[in-house]
Amino acid sequence: MCLQAIRAGFIGAAALWAVSCASSGAEQRADRPSHEKQAEAGGPGRSYRGPLVAVDANTPAEADLEARLTSPRDEVQREMTEVVGTAARPLTRGRPEGLLGNLVTDVMREHASEVTGKPVDMAFTNVGGLRADLPGGPLTRGAVLEVMPFDNSLVVAEVKGTDLQEILDRSATHGGDPISGVSYTVRDKKAVEVTVGGQPLDPAKTYRICTNDYIVDGGGKFEALKRATRINRTGILIRDALLEHIMRETRAGRAVDSTVGGRIRIESSSAPAQGGK
After folding, report:
1. pLDDT digit string (tens) for 103-130?
2. What span, in angstroms and rounded, lies between the C-alpha atoms of 208 and 189?
């Protein structure tokens, strides 16, 4: 989703609202069904009749509607073009690792630890949830929105080491997902040589991990999350956590940056499948 699409959707929604208001006052057919008569009399049914109005690029602008849209449209424009920080370089997506994915998962893990008051061992998200790269130089709110147009929120869960291994194995089948706090090697589409916080994964230990609500609700088929002993749906949008991080770095006089290397290694014999949200 790009900024132009957001604006177009906003304007289109407002246009539909105006058409709906106009249509609701249109003369009704005399033979309308009984539930429409009930609606008019305050009964349980409710219905409207009116013509469909085709709207495209050649449709003349209506002065009254344009006047109503000008103020909110300008407000959206100002908000989306507000510069909130600076990126030291283009932060791009990638697999098994990318500068952007590493940044986002680092932010997720840090933010989850702060809001819950307890350290979070691992953060991961789906690479398909990152829809655009962050450009180098000035960063606007609109640029961050383009990266994460979905309202995915931060979820913290507690899982056994055996289930964490299964989660990583699932990720390894398609070449890995953005991750923080964990490193591993993909071998024959399995996660091996796994370390958590620099220590070998302990199958008997309980780990605190965070991800997004899309994955917890079944996206990506990470079935092991169904066995999580605790799930905390924070309600915090990951996009907002990223914005807060960018602005925090700006207040500290730093440009936003990230690094790549050492989180996920793929042996040459492994051939991960392409795709995945």
Report:
1. 999 999 999 999 999 999 999 999 999 9
2. 24
Paired tokens of 105: 């998962």
Averaged confidence pLDDT in the chain: 85
Q: Say what the pTM is.
A: 0.75
Tokens representing 241?
A: 């956590």
pLDDT > 70: what percent of the chain?
Answer: 80
Using only C-alpha atoms, the chain has a radius of gyration, in whole angstroms, of: 24
Distance CA 171, CA 185 (A): 11
Six-digit token string for 118: 């307890």
State the Cα torsion 247-253-254-255 to the nearest 10°. Answer: 70
Residue 103's nearest CA partner among 116, 115, 114, 90 is 90
CA distance 227 to 154: 18
Any idea what the Cα angle at residue 184 is, between residues 181 and 188, rounded to 5°? 150
